[in-house]
């Protein structure tokens, strides 16, 4: 096996990175909830049954680090934070729609 073949195998499947990015507890649910518009932390806790503050906070932080969510601090009283899909996140909406249609068949 040549060095070139080894390097090609190490790259792996291009979809693998996306699947890793969106895997984990609550990330797909958070993503789908933000498709409809901005959402607040407490709204996520309310809408995602079985979730807790720590797991939602970790998932939000990771989605933000991956560039899929934008965090916006609203400086009105009371101060609050909203999460929106970033442009990169919006580009994944068709992928999620395809996955939904696959499972509806």
What brief labels describe this structure?
105 residues, three-stranded antiparallel β-sheet, alpha+beta
What can be said about this structure in brief?
The chain has 105 residues and is of the alpha+beta class. 60% of the residues lie in helices and 13% in strands. The protein contains seven helices and three strands.
Summarize the SSE layout with pairings.
Blueprint (H helix, E strand, L loop, with lengths): L2 H9 L2 H9 L4 H9 L3 E2 H7 L5 H13 L3 E6 L5 E6 L1 H4 L2 H12 L1
Antiparallel strand pairs: 1-3, 2-3
Protein model, in words:
There is one protein chain. With 105 residues, this protein is of the alpha+beta class. Helix content is 60%, strand content 13%. It is built from 7 helices and 3 strands; from the N terminus they run αααβααββαα. The chain has a 3-stranded antiparallel beta sheet with strand order 1-3-2.
Report the C-alpha radius of gyration, rounded. Answer: 17 Å
Give the H and E element order.
HHHEHHEEHH
Q: Residue-averaged pLDDT, rounded?
A: 85
Q: Characterize the biggest β-sheet.
A: 3 strands, antiparallel
For the record, give the distance between the C-alpha atoms at the N and C termini, rounded to a whole number: 42 Å
Tell me, what's the shape?
Answer: globular
The order of strands across the largest sheet is 1-3-2
- What's the total count of β strands? 3
Unreliable segments of 5+ consecutive residues: none
Beta-strand content bin = 5-15%
Helix fraction? Answer: 55-70%
Count of individual helical segments: 7
Which structural class should the secondary elements be placed in?
Answer: alpha+beta
């Amino acid at each position: 096996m040549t060095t070139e073949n080894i390097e090609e195998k190490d790259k792996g499947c291009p979809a693998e990175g996306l699947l890793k990015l969106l895997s984990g507890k609550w990330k797909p649910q958070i993503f789908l909830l933000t498709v409809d518009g901005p959402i607040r932390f407490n709204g996520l806790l309310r809408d995602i049954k079985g979730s807790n503050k720590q797991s939602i906070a970790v998932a939000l932080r990771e989605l933000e680090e991956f560039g899929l969510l934008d965090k916006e601090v609203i400086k009105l009283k009371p101060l609050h934070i909203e999460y929106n899909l970033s442009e990169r996140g919006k580009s994944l909406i068709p992928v999620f729609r395809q996955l939904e249609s696959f499972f509806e068949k």
